[in-house]
Amino acid sequence: VKQGTPPALRFLENAIASLRRDGLLRERVPASSATAMSFCSNDYLALAARTSQRGAVGAGASRLMAGERLEHAELEQAAADLVRMPDALAFTSGYAANVGTVAALAGREDLVVSDALNHASLVDGARLSRARVEIVPHLDLGAIDAALRLPRSGRALVVTESYFSMDADAPDLARLRDLCDARGAALIVDEAHALGVLGPEGRGLCAASGARPDALVGTFGKAFGAGGAFVAGCSTLVSWLWNRARPFVFSTGLSPALAAAAADGIRLAAREPERRERALKAASRLRTGLGGLGLDLRGFGHVVPWIVGDAVAATRIAERVRARGIDVRAVRPPSVPHGTARLRFTTTAAHDDAAVDRAVEAVTVALVGEGRP
Ligand SMILES: Cc1ncc(COP(=O)(O)O)c(C=O)c1O
After folding, report:
1. Which among 68, 83, 111, 185 is least buried, having the fewest CB atoms inside 10 angstroms?
2. Ligand 1 centroid to residue 93 C-alpha, Å
């Protein structure tokens, strides 16, 4: 049905035109063609095509009502075992897990200390909590300490990612844990992009640093090739989230079929460690290749951000690279701060040396097209 914008929504036309002018409008890019090689997927272990469907698709109700299925308990056990925590609770997405957990652990009287580059879901959880929010400069432990020393009437909660998905860097988790202990703060760590790939046996960066957060968030939609997410911690935490995490309580339970696929993803990742090794080997080859072109690359590991700066230029360069059969996307504000638009390459177990070399070649040609040989 063709229909113009109704009068009450006309203001959106101006807003969209303004986004387009600033190079910030996101439009659908068709799914990669069969010949394009994706360097922008979070399917880090190339398991999405391997996880299969079994079990019912619909949970039929909230888990609190009639939506509880065996697949949920099995997945939660596998997730808790993966991160060596006593218990875990499965959510329908990482977004829901973060919003629900932060908002369930902080209230009006409390303080949430949040890294400036935290994912939108952590930011939205802090907003929903109605706590006072102190946003601290990225990875700045001194600023976290200063925020925790401020006079407060309630509790404090420090929220961070373990492997920042747009910058590929990481906080010093061991020192952060010590700092939280010293100041009586709880620590939530989102391991969405680290789990399955980084740390001992792919168990994440908390495991690598020996730091135990009070709540550890992981997603099944990235390295584990399925969908949904979990929050792991003590059983008291899980019991509280069961009762108070709004996106969990007031929403249909995670699809049992997806829960079974996620459990498969965890099992496959453990059984085939060479997937993790391939993703990391490809990353190191890509970093060497792109670094040789003199690009401003950041961080470490399987996410390889190239900071271009200008959003319009980043979009144009991404198009030039895609024209060479390498699928990569420009990441622009508001996903990243203004002036730091970037091409975010990710490597996966599907990338061999030839694929990485093709990507470097595509960027080389794109730079020539930009008059930057
Ligand atoms: C750091 C981080 N946390 C959480 C999420 C949300 O996870 P999900 O895609 O499962 O909603 C994402 C991205 O999707 C993310 O990058």
Report:
1. 68
2. 7
Phi then psi for 136, rounded to 5 degrees? -110, 150
Tell me how far apart the alpha carbons of residues 290 and 306 are, in angstroms, rounded to a whole number. Answer: 9
Atom 8 of ligand 1, residue of closest alpha carbon: 94
Percent of the chain as helix, strand, coil, to the nearest 5: 40, 15, 45
pLDDT in tens, 327-370: 999 999 988 999 999 999 999 999 999 999 999 999 999 999 99
> Alpha helices of 191-234 — where are they, by DSSP H?
205-209
The model's pLDDT over 42-92, given as tens digits with 9 standing for 90+, comes to: 999 999 988 777 788 999 999 999 899 999 999 999 999 999 999 999 999
pLDDT score of 94 more than 90: yes
CB count, 10 Å around CB of 309?
Answer: 12
Protein residue with least CA distance to atom 5, ligand 1:
94
Structure tokens at 146: 């200063």
Q: Strand pairing of 37-38 and 326-327?
A: parallel
